[in-house]
Design goal:
The protein is mainly α. It has 4 helices and no strands. The relative contact order is 0.05.
Protein backbone atom coordinates (compact mmCIF):
# COMPACT_ATOMS: atom_id res chain seq x y z
CA UNK A 1 0.00 0.00 0.00
CA UNK A 2 1.26 3.45 -0.88
CA UNK A 3 1.37 6.01 1.88
CA UNK A 4 0.55 9.63 1.31
CA UNK A 5 2.54 12.29 3.11
CA UNK A 6 0.92 14.50 5.72
CA UNK A 7 -2.83 14.46 5.23
CA UNK A 8 -4.59 17.18 7.16
CA UNK A 9 -7.99 17.92 5.67
CA UNK A 10 -10.97 15.90 4.61
CA UNK A 11 -10.57 17.02 1.01
CA UNK A 12 -6.93 15.85 1.03
CA UNK A 13 -8.04 12.48 2.41
CA UNK A 14 -10.68 12.16 -0.29
CA UNK A 15 -8.17 13.06 -3.00
CA UNK A 16 -5.62 10.59 -1.62
CA UNK A 17 -8.27 7.86 -1.51
CA UNK A 18 -9.12 8.43 -5.18
CA UNK A 19 -5.47 7.79 -6.05
CA UNK A 20 -5.51 4.36 -4.41
CA UNK A 21 -5.89 1.20 -6.44
CA UNK A 22 -9.37 -0.39 -6.15
CA UNK A 23 -8.12 -3.19 -3.90
CA UNK A 24 -6.46 -0.61 -1.65
CA UNK A 25 -9.73 1.34 -1.49
CA UNK A 26 -11.51 -1.84 -0.40
CA UNK A 27 -8.85 -2.46 2.24
CA UNK A 28 -9.26 1.10 3.51
CA UNK A 29 -13.05 0.73 3.60
CA UNK A 30 -12.80 -2.56 5.50
CA UNK A 31 -10.40 -0.98 7.97
CA UNK A 32 -12.80 1.92 8.56
CA UNK A 33 -15.95 -0.17 9.06
CA UNK A 34 -14.08 -2.38 11.52
CA UNK A 35 -12.78 0.59 13.50
CA UNK A 36 -14.09 1.32 16.98
CA UNK A 37 -15.03 4.85 15.89
CA UNK A 38 -17.24 3.60 13.06
CA UNK A 39 -18.84 0.94 15.26
CA UNK A 40 -19.56 3.50 18.00
CA UNK A 41 -21.20 5.86 15.48
CA UNK A 42 -23.31 3.04 14.04
CA UNK A 43 -24.38 1.91 17.51
CA UNK A 44 -25.31 5.48 18.50
CA UNK A 45 -27.39 5.86 15.33
CA UNK A 46 -29.14 2.55 16.00
CA UNK A 47 -29.93 3.59 19.56
CA UNK A 48 -31.41 6.88 18.31
CA UNK A 49 -33.59 5.04 15.78
CA UNK A 50 -34.75 2.57 18.43
CA UNK A 51 -35.61 5.41 20.80
CA UNK A 52 -37.71 7.04 18.07
CA UNK A 53 -39.52 3.75 17.43
CA UNK A 54 -40.18 3.14 21.11
CA UNK A 55 -41.48 6.69 21.47
CA UNK A 56 -43.82 6.15 18.51
CA UNK A 57 -45.10 2.92 20.08
CA UNK A 58 -45.63 4.65 23.42
CA UNK A 59 -47.65 7.38 21.69
CA UNK A 60 -49.77 4.84 19.82
CA UNK A 61 -48.34 5.78 16.44
CA UNK A 62 -48.16 2.39 14.80
CA UNK A 63 -50.16 0.23 12.43
CA UNK A 64 -51.04 -3.41 12.80
CA UNK A 65 -51.06 -5.74 9.82
CA UNK A 66 -53.03 -8.86 9.06
CA UNK A 67 -53.59 -11.16 6.08
CA UNK A 68 -55.75 -8.58 4.34
CA UNK A 69 -53.29 -5.67 4.33
CA UNK A 70 -49.84 -7.26 4.59
CA UNK A 71 -49.58 -7.53 0.79
CA UNK A 72 -50.21 -3.79 0.51
CA UNK A 73 -47.34 -3.24 2.95
CA UNK A 74 -45.07 -5.47 0.84
CA UNK A 75 -45.98 -3.49 -2.29
CA UNK A 76 -45.29 -0.17 -0.54
CA UNK A 77 -41.92 -1.39 0.72
CA UNK A 78 -41.00 -2.66 -2.75
CA UNK A 79 -42.04 0.61 -4.39
CA UNK A 80 -40.09 2.63 -1.84
CA UNK A 81 -37.01 0.47 -2.38
CA UNK A 82 -37.19 0.85 -6.16
CA UNK A 83 -37.49 4.63 -5.78
CA UNK A 84 -34.46 4.73 -3.49
CA UNK A 85 -32.46 2.73 -6.01
CA UNK A 86 -33.39 5.23 -8.71
CA UNK A 87 -32.03 8.02 -6.54
CA UNK A 88 -35.36 9.55 -5.64
CA UNK A 89 -35.14 8.61 -1.97
CA UNK A 90 -38.59 8.53 -0.49
CA UNK A 91 -39.06 7.96 3.21
CA UNK A 92 -42.77 7.99 4.07
CA UNK A 93 -42.21 7.51 7.81
CA UNK A 94 -40.42 10.82 8.32
Amino acid sequence: MRYVGSVSTLEEIKAATKRLKPDEQVELFNWWVQSDTFKARQLAALKRELAVGIDQLDQGRYRTYDDTNVMQLAEEVGKSGRERLKGGRKNPSR
